[in-house]
Amino acid sequence: MANYNKKIVITGGAGFIGSHVVRLFVNKYPNYQIFNLDSLTYAGNLENIADIEKKENYQFIKGDITDADFINQLFDKHKFDGVIHLAAESHVDRSISDPLAFVKTNVIGTMNLLNAAKSIWANNYERKRFYHVSTDEVYGSLGATGLFTETTSYDPNSPYSASKASSDHFVRAYGETYGLPYVITNCSNNYGPNHFPEKLIPLFINNIIEKKSLPVYGDGKYTRDWLFVKDHAVAIDLVFHEGKNHETYNIGGFNEWQNIDLVKLLCKKMDEKLGRIAGESEELITYVKDRPGHDLRYAIDASKINRELGWKPSVTFEEGLGQTIDWYLANETWLKNVTSGDYQHYYEKQYS
Ligand code: NAD
Ligand code: DAU
Q1: Can you tell me which residues the record assigns to a coiled coil (predicted)?
Q2: Complete DSSP assignment for 133-196
Q3: Which of 74, 92, 105, 282 has its CA 20 to 30 A from that of 33?
Q4: In which domain, by residue range, is 245 found?
């Protein structure tokens, strides 16, 4: 029986970002016992972490963070030292059609984890840490200029961002009220391998492969700051180990793109990789009805994490996007599996 010096539960580890975080921790820290707690919603996929499933220091637990009794029993049994909380409903469009699902998982689920951690740690907080992985969307929308800093006021606009803002507030409140040791990070838009094809980049990669239309919301002038998912995972590792208690860190890519420019770049790269005539995929671009409450612009000032912890993105957008496209082209079966069944219903409802 191995002797581990830390037990960490990572929630949402079968999802997009979570799978990269779980892989990094399992491989980098053989002395940690890593538990991946995930209920396997439509967004959770064990194929994302198939390469580590047999590692000795790794255990998958299928379970729902909204089930308080289950969470309390699990925490009681394993007495985790650390929680890295990523499990969430994560798609803004779905939050518009079903806001309550976002309250249940993102708010109640986070509360259940906070209560369970508080209960097993029982005021003995030495070497304990609750890490909440959050989003820049809690800050609302920027105009044409300016950046979100850690002191920007919360001003969420979508049910998704309101639920994440609420959970951030509860994490902070547990820190202030009960002394629970926490860190929060607010990150910009991630992209990379294993991204579920409901989000802009993987959706459009899949549609380009299938020669389906590319539904650009509104005038396409909305702006996002894109970060390669593996760089986010590295930042999470750093903040978990070296971030200061009761602090927030913004994480971003220093990489702003208007949607339409990004989509055109993606079309160009895909035409090259697929051996299609230049300009062929751009013809698929279709402007469609805007997302209600669509935030104009997100842009992160990531100077605090850079200055205090020495983090910065390691991959340029060109490299990251190239690697991402290559991954989707090499993982056709993954893409086929996740776009069959329920995905078709979702797609018809969202884009018909
Ligand atoms: P995702 O939708 O790809 O994955 C979410 C995972 O959580 C899935 O594996 C799902 O099965 C699991 N899950 C959902 N509800 C659950 C429940 N009730 N109990 C247990 N597990 C449950 O999400 P993602 O894009 O990887 O995002 C992960 C986290 O990072 C989220 O908290 C999100 O708010 C945050 N975030 C995402 C981005 C981004 O660009 N994707 C950026 C910043 C922050
Ligand atoms: O900023 C961080 C957030 O980024 C995360 O917290 C969320 O979990 C993540 O989903 C992401 O939210 P966005 O709403 O920014 O990502 P999405 O990929 O859905 O959309 C990116 C932009 O592209 C946005 O301006 C809406 C637009 N869009 C999106 C889709 C799905 C389109 O124009 N057409 C589409 O079909």
Answers
A1: none
A2: EEEGGGG--B-SS--B-TTSPP---SHHHHHHHHHHHHHHHHHHHH---EEEEEE-EEESTT--
A3: 105
A4: 6-194+226-254+300-315
